[in-house]
Amino acid sequence: MTNRVSVLNRCEASFQSEGTTYGNIQILNLGTDGCHIEVPEQAKVSGDSVVEGWSLSHPLLPAESIQARVIWANGPAREGYREAEVLFLGASDGYRRGLKKYVNLLQTASPECTANDLVGMP
C-alpha cells in the first residue's frame, strides 16, 4: 500500500457493481494504488469484488474510468454506510501520475483547504 492522504469532503467516486451504479461515494483517504471509502449498506460489494467504471470526481484527478477491486468491506461505518478498501486495477501510468500529483498537493495543503481551493493551486 502506498502513502495515503485524507481527502474527506474533497473528492468523491462512482462505480458500477452487479448492474447498479453507485455515485457520490465518499473517499476517506487516497493513494496511487487505491483508497478507503464509505459505501451505502445496500451496495453489493464484499471482499474480492471487482467493480467496473470506477471514476473519481474532482477537476485535478484523472477523468478516465478503471476497474477496481474491493479488498474488504465492513460495516457499519455510520448509519446507512459501511467502510471498504479499494485497490485500483489496470490504471494507466498517466492515471497513477495524476493521482500522485494530487496526493502530493494534498500533503502540502492545509487541512482546512477545500476541493475548490485546490483547483487554483500550482
Q: In one word, what is the shape? A: globular
Query: Quick check: average pLDDT?
Result: 87
Strand content: over 45%
Low-confidence segments: none
Structural class: alpha+beta
Number of helices: 2
Oligomer: single chain
- The neighbouring-strand order within the major sheet is 2-3-4-7-6-5
Tell how many strands the DSSP assignment holds. Answer: 7
**Largest sheet: number of strands, sense, barrel closure:** 6 strands, antiparallel, barrel
Radius of gyration: 14 Å
The helix/strand series, from N terminus to C terminus, equals EEEEEEEHH
Helical content class: 10-25%
Question: Can you put this structure into words, describing what you see?
Answer:
The chain has 122 residues and is α+β, with helices and mostly antiparallel strands. Helix content is 17%, strand content 47%. The protein is built from 2 helices and 7 strands. The protein has helices spanning 93-108, 115-119, and strands at 5-6, 12-17, 20-30, 34-40, 49-57, 66-78, 81-89. Strands 2-3-4-7-6-5 form a 6-stranded antiparallel barrel. The longest helix has 16 residues, at 93-108. The model has no long low-confidence stretch (mean pLDDT 87).
